[in-house]
Amino acid sequence: MLLSSCSSGCKCGSSCLNKPFQNRPVKKLKLVKTEKCGSGIVADEDIEQGEFVIEYVGEVIDDKTCEERLWNMKHRGETNFYLCEINRDMVIDATYKGNKSRYINHSCCPNTEMQKWIIDGETRIGIFATRDIRKGEHLTYDYQFVQFGADQDCHCGADRCRRKLGVRPTKPKMSSDAALKLVAYQVASSSQK
Ligand SMILES: C[S@@+](CC[C@H](N)C(=O)[O-])C[C@H]1O[C@@H](n2cnc3c(N)ncnc32)[C@H](O)[C@@H]1O
Ligand SMILES: [Zn+2]
Ligand SMILES: [Zn+2]
């Protein structure tokens, strides 16, 4: 789903509530070592459901460059992948340049999600809380549209773990009517904050 942010010059003035990336401070996050998933991120403050956590940033590369990099990574025996697909021909690669978001691990029962937003004509990826998160909890999202390294075993520990990273969850297909209602709800609830 592609969400649309107000542009920097919108007419809403300083009260604009439709700029999740610009107007909301990044949450305090701490880099930690996990038992089974390498490095990971824990919340260093309470986060409320729906709140913007951090932007997923990195180098924006095309499919061809992505393929070359994946090939090189495979040769080097890399096991950590920091790639996020924006659309069919664009990938954000946080391998060499990125922020703390690159350390957020996958869970089959996550507490955040990636959302794609159009801001001033650019597609950007934000990580948002899908439930209330207490200080000290591990942050996770579902790597469902990060298909790289999909054959890796998942160690998220969730009851209904899908056992592999990158396996898409089986969701009942949403009708366009239901999808529209969801957008309307998200717009309404974001303007209440
Ligand atoms: C975006 S990085 C996350 C940070 C990474 N743990 C690190 O130490 O830099 C993604 C990589 O972390 C590991 N990882 C993330 N979630 C995992 C999980 N649920 N089970 C096993 N490995 C996981 C995999 O190696 C994956 O390619
Ligand atoms: Zn606005
Ligand atoms: Zn899992």
From TrEMBL:
What Pfam families does the entry give? SET
This protein's GO CC annotations: chromosome; nucleus
Domain AWS, first and last residues per copy: 1-25
Which ranges carry the Post-SET domain?
Answer: 150-166
> Annotated Gene Ontology MF terms?
histone methyltransferase activity
- Primary place of residence? nucleus
State the CDD domains in the record: SET_ASHR3-like
The protein's name in its UniProt record: Histone-lysine N-methyltransferase ASHH3 isoform X1
